[in-house]
Amino acid sequence: MPLFQDIPRLITLIFSIVMLLIVGYGFASGNLDAFLTALREPWNQVTLADLYISFWLMSVVMFVLSKNKWASLPWIVAINVIGSPVFGLWLLLNLPRLRKRMG
Any idea what the Cα angle at residue 10 is, between residues 5 and 14, rounded to 5°? Predict the structure, then answer.
């Protein structure tokens, strides 16, 4: 099925692009010193922990559902460095195969 007729894949693509733009904006405009100072606030620590736990949970999904476990390792490293856009790309590429598998 072509990408633009596959609504779940299209939504995944849109959210991945949006998240990539947000990450790019953060790198381009953000103040790392201010961010590190703000991490002293407990709710910021909770938010960051929540984010990384989500990355690790997505990594488990990637590893378990990958045909080649070794091939999933670069994806797992990338998701923990770059973030959600990597999982979005992985999902975009693998959603057709996962649909067939879950049948």
Answer: 150
Classify the C-alpha dihedral 82-87-88-93 as positive or negative: positive
Two tokens, residue 28: 């381009």
Cβ proximity of 48 and 36 under 8 Å: no
The Cα–Cα gap between 77 and 85 comes to 13
What tokens appear for 39 in the block? 């991490």
| Per-residue CA distances from 14 to 32, 43, 68, 74, 93 (Å) | 27, 29, 27, 23, 14
pLDDT in tens, 31-68: 888 888 998 999 999 999 999 999 999 999 999 999 89
Sign for the pseudo-dihedral over CA of 85, 83, 52, 64: positive
Q: Distance of CA 88 to CAs 3, 13, 29, 63, 84, Å?
A: 14, 7, 23, 15, 6
CA dist., res. 37 & res. 27, Å (int): 17
